Amino acid sequence: MAYSVTIGGCTRSFGDLKILLAKATPARSGDALAGIAAENEEERALAKMALAEVPLVRFLEELLIPYEQDEVTRLIVDTHDAQAFAAIRGLTVGEFREWLLDPATDIETMTRIAPGITPEMAAAVSKLMRNQDLILAAQKCRVVTRFRNTLGLPGRLSVRLQPNHPTDDVRGIAASMLEGLLYGCGDAVIGVNPASDSLQAVTRLLEMMNAFRERYDVPTQTCVLAHVTNTLRAMERGAPVDLVFQSIGGTEKTNRSFGVSRKLLEEARAAALELKRGTVGDNVMYFETGQGSALSAGAHEGVDQQTCEARAYAVARHLKPLLVNSVVGFIGPEYLLDGKQIIRAGLEDHFCGKLLGLPMGCDVCYTNHAEADQDDMDTLLTLLAVAGVNFVMGVPGADDVMLNYQSTSFHDALYARSALGLRRAPEFEAWLERVGIADSRGDLLGTGAERKLLPGASEWLG
Amino acid sequence: MWARLREFTPARIGLGRVGGSLPTRGLLDFELAHARARDAVRARFDAAALAYELRVTGFGEVLVVSSQARDRMEYLLRPDLGRALDAESREKLKESRGDGCELAVVIADGLSAVAPKRHAVPLLREFLTALGSNRDKVTVVVANRGRVALGDEIGELLGAEAVVVLIGERPGLSSPDSLGVYLTWAPRVGRTDAERNCISNVRPEGLRYAAAALRLAYLLGEARRLKLSGVGLKDDSEGEGKASERRLAKDD
Fold it and tell me: Could B13 and A396 be called an inter-chain contact, meaning their C-beta atoms sit closer than 8 Å?
């Protein structure tokens, strides 16, 4: 079906919904690379006008990728909650934006309708929203998840402690873990990206991180971000797996390029649930996503990268994750060129994920071949913290020496807490006070804390 | 205490803090490192000078070619153009094909022109030593604005049994000059990344020339024996492949 808009007697048509969504997307290099972006600013503006008139129900009728062809589409269609959708069923995309911004739409309403929103509806409305709209609407979404602590409560910001090392050196990783904890980071997860994806290396890290966490009795979870098949094998061998990690995308073909399917992810989740390692909840999955991954795999099926990204959240939602983060600036300038595009994409991803009911975090980050710098990251971190992001990364000095990109640092987390009064997960906060790292308000106590923690780490740090 | 812990990792630990903020020294050190990494991405690749250096070092005739990306920005934004030769380069390679060669070595700027400039010649020297006898049958090509897959077309046009691409990797803050090495057996246009073997982070502070050369010679020997490269030819040693590429997408 074609979509059109008439302005001053001139009519502009767009061939189908997929084309319309791509043309209505705020400018970004990835859609231009795919050859699906608006030809000029006027066409983009007109596409937004046409998109604003599309009824939300249309997204249930016109599927972007055929049902028979794609298991992500099947998941979206088969799990759609018509009852939850009823409250917004009569709206167009443009009216949906206004409904989201209406003060009468509160947290309870948003929680109730989440299962009735499809990724395509979320992506569509986000394309009509300004950055401030994305922030304001996201503030109304509350997604709380639990494993060994409680994440996503109001007024809280958690941090994934990311102690990566170029050769997976156990002492090097332990040193970064120790410092991260002393900075009050790690309540979202202590999660390391292994340089080597061999089962042996993954198991060694799992055991070290688990022993480290147990030594200090930290109320958090650990994770080695290996491929799900390796995590499954590690579980079979009895390794201490808290969370199952996997990168996922928004089309079946993308997921195939990652070596995963819905069935494999379900299997891994079942295996992790069986271990019953969570103490306050059973959200056992950790997913990473990012705009451009589908195009990079030649698997975008003509769908714009932001809509592909939102579709990845449908895969995540189905598996009740503890954490989902968009690794927004990691993928490179051919998908998101500069600070402006990265900032916009970070806000879109956070909003779309939250709207769909996901515990969204964000790896506020950039690579050295993108047109971005620390100032852009400060801006995005601040905006996301205002929007209520569940968690961000904590990398020593913001420099990931293994993955070769810049993320947010331990210091950056302290900045966000200080500027906006955001606290850590309550269980973790209590632990920091108990071991003498922070006071009852969550402020770091300063020197001396390391002397209390260091002796316990002698097994790894000598 | 942090001085000792810093021996275990190149990560930026022990920077200290002023309240929650970074002390001035740490802030400025970071900015210098970022400036160097940015300069590495933008640096001009002097292909002719590198070709000359290779020639005088004894690598015989060295061809200089270019991809279809016309400048640095186009190279960054259009990976597809960086994977295809321009018309002139295509003709040049066809003419020099001769009887084919056993091995084509392609040296490309990639995302850091600094990396091949610093490390390509010393690595190649070590590699040819490790290879032993067969050095006459190696053809070296220097490529402007090339991505890894450009080697497929070059290898195919030269009728090479295998192609080795030495290319500047995505520069890290602490490693603006790290070189990546990719081996592809029976190169031809359309080969996938699953059909390649990768050795990453070649530089004196990372994987040293001699170790990288030995591993490459081993992989080439195995590729020749099995008549394939990629996932079917797994390196026994740990740490093969690039973690960044496993994370979300390829960046070559």
Answer: yes
How many CA atoms lie less than 13 Å away from B228 in the CB half-sphere?
11
Residue A59 CA to residue A118 CA, distance in Å, equals 8
* Contact between A371 and A338 (Cβ < 8 Å): yes
Give how far Cα B216 sits from Cα of A198, A402, B115, B148, Å: 20, 22, 18, 16
Cβ atoms B85, B67 nearer than 8 A: yes
CATH number of B45-251: 3.40.50.11240
Q: pLDDT under 50 in chain A at which residues?
A: none
Of B12, B239, B247, the CB nearest to A330: B247
Tell if the CB–CB gap between A368 and B172 is shorter than 8 Å.
yes
Domain positions in chain B: 45-251
Does A368 contact B6 at a Cβ distance shorter than 8 Å?
no
Helix (H) or strand (E) holding A229: helix A228-236
pLDDT in tens, B20-33: 999 999 999 999 99
3-class secondary structure, B200: strand
Tokens linked to B199: 């050795």
Taking only Cα atoms into account, the Rg of chain B, rounded to an integer number of angstroms, comes to: 19
For residue B240, what pLDDT is reported?
45
User: Which residue is listed with tokens 């400036």?
Assistant: B35
* pLDDT tens per residue across span B134-180: 666 889 999 999 999 999 999 999 999 999 999 999 999 988 899 99
B15 touches chain A (CB under 8 A): yes
Q: Which residue has the tokens 């809280």?
A: A156
> Which residues contact residue A409 at a Cβ distance below 8 angstroms, ignoring those fewer than 6 apart?
A394, A395, A396, A397, A398, B12, B22
CA dist B156 and B163 (Å) reads 9
Compute the distance between CA of residue B146 and CA of residue B105 in angstroms, rounded to an integer. 13
* Closest-approach residue (CA) in chain A for B31: A374
Q: Who's near A376: CB < 8 A, 6+ residues apart?
A: A338, A339, A340, A342, A343, A366
Structure tokens at A161: 């402690």
Angstrom CA distances, A141 to A216, A355, A383, A415, B243, stand at 34, 6, 15, 24, 33
pLDDT per position as a tens digit, A323-360: 999 999 999 999 999 999 999 999 999 999 999 999 99
CA distance A404 to A400: 6
Which pLDDT does position B242 carry in this prediction?
Answer: 62
- Show the DSSP H helices in B71-167 as ranges: 72-77, 79-82, 87-95, 114-131, 150-158
* CB contact at 8 A, A287 and A255: no
CA distances from B207 to A5, B167, B203 (A): 58, 15, 6
Residue at token pair 């797994």: B234
List phi, psi (to 5°) of B11: -60, 155
Cβ of residue B239 closer than 8 Å to a chain A Cβ: yes
Structure tokens belonging to residue A68: 């028979």
Is residue B227 within 8 Å of B184, Cβ to Cβ?
A: no
Reported as a single tens digit per residue, the pLDDT across B107-133 is: 999 999 999 999 999 999 999 888 876
Q: Which residue of B has its CA nearest to A173?
A: B9
Rounded Cα–Cα distance for residues B208 and B122 (Å): 10
Residue type at A72 in one-letter notation = V
Residue B66: which of B145, B141, B139, B120 has the closest Cα?
B145
- Residue A220 phi, psi dihedral angles, 5° rounding: -150, -175
